[in-house]
Design goal:
Number of domains: 4
Radius of gyration: 29 Å
CATH architecture of the largest domain: 3-Layer(aba) Sandwich
Strand order of the largest sheet: 5-4-1-6-7-8
Length: 486
Amino acid sequence: MDLAVGFDLDMTLVDSSEGIVATVLAAVAELGPDSGYSIDPAALAATIGIPMEDMLAPYLPPELLLPVADRYRELYPAIGVPRTVALPGAHEAFAAVRAVHGQVVVVSAKPEPAVRLVLEQVGLQADVVVGRLFAADKGIALREHGVSVYLGDHPGDVAGAHAADAVAVAVATGPHDAPALAAVGADVVLPGLEPFPVWLDAHVLDARLADLHARLAATGSLVVAFSGGVDSAFLLAAAVRALGPTNVVAATAVSGSLADGELDGAAAFARGLGVRHLTPQTDEMARDGYRANAGDRCFFCKAELLDVVGPLARSLGIEAVATGTNADDALAGFRPGIRAAAERGALTPLRDAGFTKAQVRAAAARWELPTWDKPAAACLSSRIAYGVQITTSGLARVDRAEADARTWCREGGVDVRDLRVRDLGQDRARIELDAAALAAVLQRPDAGAALVAAVLAAGFGSAEIDPQGFRSGSMNELLATPERYR
């Protein structure tokens, strides 16, 4: 599901009233002191949002409208732009759109060069800028760029949104108050931009849930490659809602790369949904590329998974297999496993519906799934530095070290959410802790040594605590040229 959100400019994103009025007064003043034309600044400011010729119409004869408007546009960069400031919440509104992988489109009655100058002045960067469109004509650009939500402060912005069949979100930051904006048909009226991120999160989540439901319902039946993590757990629950438990099968691959305790949790979750849970054995170790552990290791791991689960699904009379790949994964830039799954025809409903990791967690929390706040739990092979050969004993050592480290944290009074023990080769280990746990350990002189000792007891020759803390995919930092593995 692609997303584009549109914004009006003047009095929606920026307070341009002072600059517009000052530029108009300067342009009219050039007509000469004896021209007799007088403009009420307050009345002029109340009309901001319509084309300049229309703003000038009450004050000037028809033959002067175009020349003065043209002169206004010449003066505006020097006089009006420096007087323009961002309205409260403007930067956060753009950030909210990008957080859900949306595109920012600004459509204004101003000429495009002036729009760009204003955005640069206030430090806002749009993906698309379109100028010289007003009211329903804005719908032309909104449709062209796939805008489904349009924000503005003027009745003309509401007309533009509706012309494109977009949701009209009105903000009462300009000359029109909330009742007036509601009266012209705004779908949503907000007092300003500050509440917009919360509204957008809920709106997009609802839309993506509906999209996901439709995609899953269209499959008829489905096998979910179910690791037990938050993504595949949410996908499994969504499939049950769309298809019913009898048309969904959960398949959890069992191998040495599955961390201790993960299978029990996956089984309990599937049982709670009432779906059949299969536990096929996979043998990644039989693949040379997996054991070699170069940067494309995940390709061979995912290939093994789908080469086992795919035929299993077909033996059950089910053609479709889906993974829990989300939209963030697709943008991560280094996911060879995604390519392996795509080559084998696996579906990625979460990615296709646009679900970010945060949205997966939000939806899982809404549905009260026990996995909604489960820490990330990548396979054990992700803990081993690229170039260090993967062995069964090496995976077991990492699993044991992490279990012992978590036990020490629990017994030592350190609340830890994310913990990784990274095998760097040559019997060296690096311990990564989430920010809060890392701070707690560093505040106690004895704690770091005790935690290191717990990891050493699992069989490592040396170990150290990473001062940067936990970060997903940190082993990719050690790759000199990850592009060759994509």
